[in-house]
Every structure is written in C-alpha cells, then in structure tokens.
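dumping this here so i dont lose it
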C-alpha cells in the first residue's frame, strides 16, 4: 500500500512538474513570439447596452448606444474611469430634432450612434428609422466637449447627413461610422440589409457630403434570394466599423439577425483592403462584395447569443473590441469588451462563456 501511494505520489508530482514545464514553455514561447491571448474585461455597473461605441476625453471614457425615448432623452450615455465600471450618465440629446420628426415620423428614438473627433469638435452621428424598413436618415450633432460639467458643453444639431427612401434607394441609411484617413480625408460608412454597406467622402468642415463629390462606394453585400421583400429575407449585413492598421483598412460588419433575444444569430466578420474604398477581401481571398468575411466572433452556444454590432477603440497600443450580446435565458442585451490581438494580419478576440 505504501509502495502504491509512493508510486502515485511520484507520478502525480511528475505530472505536475510536466504541466509546469509546459506552461513555462508556453509562456516563454508567447513572450518570444509576442503572441497574447485576448481577454474579456471584467465589467460591472450599468451594462444594459445595445450598439456600443466609446470615446475618451481627459480621464473619462464616454459610451454612447442605442436607446431612449423621444421627448424624454435619446442616445444613452455611460461613463467610466477605467473602461470596466460603467455608470449611466443621462442622454446625449433631449429629443429628436424637428427635421427628424418630419422626415421619419415613425422614429421613436435614435439608433447606433457613432462618436468621433475631428476639425476641433466631437461629431455624434446617429440613425433615425423604424424596424424593417429603409425609410431612414442619419443625423449629426456636434459638441466641443463630452464633459457635461464644462461651460462649453452643448450639443448642436447639424441636421441630416444622408437619407434613404424605399421608392428610390437600394440601401438603408442607418449604422453610421466615421473613418479618418487624415485631416483632409474623412469618410462615412453606413448600411443595413438591402444593398449592403456604403461609403461616402465627408467634408471635415461640415461633417456632411461635399457638393463636388457625389460618388458612393459599396463595400460589402450579400446575395438576396427575395430582394423585393421588406425587409429582405437575405442579405443580412449591417453595422460597419473601419479600422486602419499596418497599411490595411479593416472592415468589420455584423452578419445575420440582431434584436431577437435568445433567437438572435448575429456574428461579426472582417475583411481588409489596401484602399479605404475597397475591394475588401477575407482571409481566404473572397470579396465581401460577394458575401465573404472572416469570422471574428459569434455566440451560438453557452450563456450568450448573437454577438454583434462591434466598435473598436484604440489606446496606447492596445485595441479594444466592443460589442453587445443577448443572454440565452433572459431579456435585454449586455455590453462586452475584449482586448483584440493580431495574428498574421488578422484580428482575434476572446470568446464568450
């Protein structure tokens, strides 16, 4: 018996030593190659978020998302000092502007905002629409600061940027995202279902389309079996987000369906291009214009469903990947933030539990 125990103990110690050696070797390999595994940040506070995007001013992160109610406040704002603990901080806008009420009477709040800083002020683009139609518009508000305690804090309505109409437009004017190439070249991407993801140059002075440039670029689309159905039963692509890294532009988009709770099958895919106007190809060389896309994240099993509508925030050499997902049991949607690592020129993020 003692011999058996001794043998078992020696075997266990040998196994433990082997595990330690493996982990040490793995750690040394990671250090030598620079490879790191992405991790989900431990978040707390008010995380009931849909379509997140963040910016930082001073020592505070500001998160904007879909939601609110016209007349009571739209575009919820949450703040954090460390990107981990989030506190509800009211709404960016008190109400829909009058032009939005007239253009899209069915709109009840604002969707999928995008926050960016150029030409000396913050630009808040947002979507005005109703579910399942492309009778939509993208609006713009600007502010010198995101800090409500500042005397300069005031959101200024800059009006409508782009409009889609069912009778004349084969794309949907929602889900805006600004990409800044340089101070003179600013771009707006947008789109949901229908003709897919669009891109147009922005005049940095106005935040709107320049009169002398009328060209639209289609960056991503998916085949539609019944294109005249509203909404289309195929062609599920939306929520573009453009990121520049190491000579490439990366286009993140969400495929399939959000907003169905546990039945949501949202996922994020990516393609890249040397030019911001495309063409964007996935890792296998398939164009995103033909429905290609390298998978970044999905949530089809476990505790969460339908991971999507991402944003990327870059700070001090670290890339953060924001998105929302739906609990497999329960209601609402929740904010997630993962670090994002790059391997062979392609992004990798942490998986959901």
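and the seq i came up w/
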């Amino acid at each position: 018996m003692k011999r058996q125990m001794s043998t078992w103990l020696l075997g266990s110690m040998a196994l433990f030593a082997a595990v330690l050696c493996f982990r040490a070797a793995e750690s040394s390999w990671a250090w030598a190659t620079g490879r790191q595994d992405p991790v989900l940040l431990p978040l707390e506070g008010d995380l009931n978020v849909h379509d997140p995007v963040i910016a930082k001013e001073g020592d505070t992160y500001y998160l904007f998302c879909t939601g609110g109610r016209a007349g009571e406040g739209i575009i919820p704002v949450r703040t954090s000092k460390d990107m981990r603990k989030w506190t509800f901080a009211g709404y960016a806008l008190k109400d829909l502007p009058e032009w939005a009420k007239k253009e899209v009477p069915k709109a009840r709040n604002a969707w999928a905002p995008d926050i960016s800083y150029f030409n000396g002020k913050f630009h808040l683009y947002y979507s005005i629409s109703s579910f399942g139609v492309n009778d939509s518009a993208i609006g713009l508000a600007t502010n010198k600061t995101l800090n409500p305690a500042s005397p300069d804090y005031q959101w200024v309505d800059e009006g409508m940027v782009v409009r889609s109409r069912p009778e004349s437009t084969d794309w949907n004017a929602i889900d805006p995202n600004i990409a800044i190439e340089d101070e003179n070249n600013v771009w707006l991407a947008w789109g949901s279902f229908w003709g897919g993801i669009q891109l147009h140059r922005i005049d940095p002075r106005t935040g709107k389309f320049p009169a002398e440039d009328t060209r639209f670029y289609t960056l991503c689309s998916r085949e539609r079996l019944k294109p005249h159905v509203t909404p289309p039963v195929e062609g599920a692509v939306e929520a573009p987000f453009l990121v520049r890294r190491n000579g490439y532009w990366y286009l993140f988009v969400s495929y399939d369906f959000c907003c169905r709770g546990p039945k949501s099958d949202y996922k994020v895919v990516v393609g890249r291009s040397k030019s911001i106007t495309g063409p964007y190809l996935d890792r296998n060389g398939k164009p995103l214009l033909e429905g290609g896309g390298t998978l970044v994240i999905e949530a089809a099993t476990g505790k969460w469903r339908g991971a999507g509508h991402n944003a990327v925030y870059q700070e001090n050499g670290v890339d953060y990947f924001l998105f929302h997902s739906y609990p497999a049991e329960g209601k609402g949607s929740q904010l997630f933030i993962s670090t994002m690592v790059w391997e062979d020129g392609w992004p990798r993020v942490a998986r959901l539990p």
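The longest helix spans residues 2-33.
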